Amino acid sequence: MMILFIGLSYDNKEVALHCGIMLRECIKFLSLARYILESASFELFFKFVELPTFDVASDAFSTFKDLLTKHLTVVSEYLTAHYDEFFDLYEKLLTSSNYVTRRQSLKLLSEFLLEPPNSHIMKRYILEVRFLKVMMTLLKDSSKNIQISAFHIFKVFVANPNKPHEVKVILAKNHEKLLELLRNLSVGKGADDDQFEEEKELIMKEIERVSGLPNHDC
Questions:
Q1: Dihedral of CA 86/88/89/90: which sign?
Q2: Origin, by domain of life (predicted)?
Q3: What is the model's pLDDT at position 111?
């Protein structure tokens, strides 16, 4: 019944918001959250969050976020078992033509990917060139908010002391464009500005270091 309920919940905009409230109440219980994550219906959320009706899509994203952040141990187990399928689908959200989808998905990614229980998932994620390329593309997004969020994931790829050969090659080949992008990237004036600029400086130095390595070391 739960699987059928999920399947029908957001497809009917007349009841979607009420169903969303009920689903989020269910997700508060660990056993039900695990059941939804491991069901075939979970993949429907990747469709629901891009529905054309803004209120429905936003509500679906709220439910999607709760599923990925409320019970970190369960999420870690799920991501470990379904890594390829999940991130194949998630990449499509990050590269969506819809600005809201890109922004929300990127922010959510940084929230659950950088949680301690998901450290092994993060370490695997930052080894993959295709995901590095996604972050590099998002660094060029027209939205400053997306650029800043992308930087906070991009910096983990660069700061990784065990960068694979393929990642080093991409950073070296694109170092001039990356350095230009980073020089122009700023959070503005505020409490976090100094920390951001310090992190940015370190990342730029690491990109310069990698780009200066002999070809056989890259």
A1: positive
A2: Eukaryota
A3: 92
Q: What is the dihedral of CA 135, 140, 144, 147, to 10 degrees?
A: 20
Q: Tell whether the torsion through CA atoms of 168, 169, 172 and 178 is positive or negative.
A: negative
- What's 41's DSSP letter? G
- In total, the chain counts a number of residues equal to 218
Any idea which fold 1-125 has?
Answer: Leucine-rich Repeat Variant (1.25.10)
Show the tokens assigned to 58: 């936003």
Residues 84-98 pLDDT 10s: 999 999 999 999 999
> Rounded CA gap, 132 and 156, in Å?
10
Q: For the segment 154-198, what is each residue's pLDDT rounded down to a tens digit?
A: 999 999 999 999 999 999 999 999 999 999 998 866 656 888 999
pLDDT in tens, 14-69: 888 988 999 999 999 999 999 999 998 899 999 999 999 999 999 999 999 999 99
Beta-carbon contacts of residue 174 (< 8 Å; ≥ 6 apart): 136
CA–CA gap between residue 218 and residue 213 (Å, rounded): 6
pTM, to two decimals: 0.90
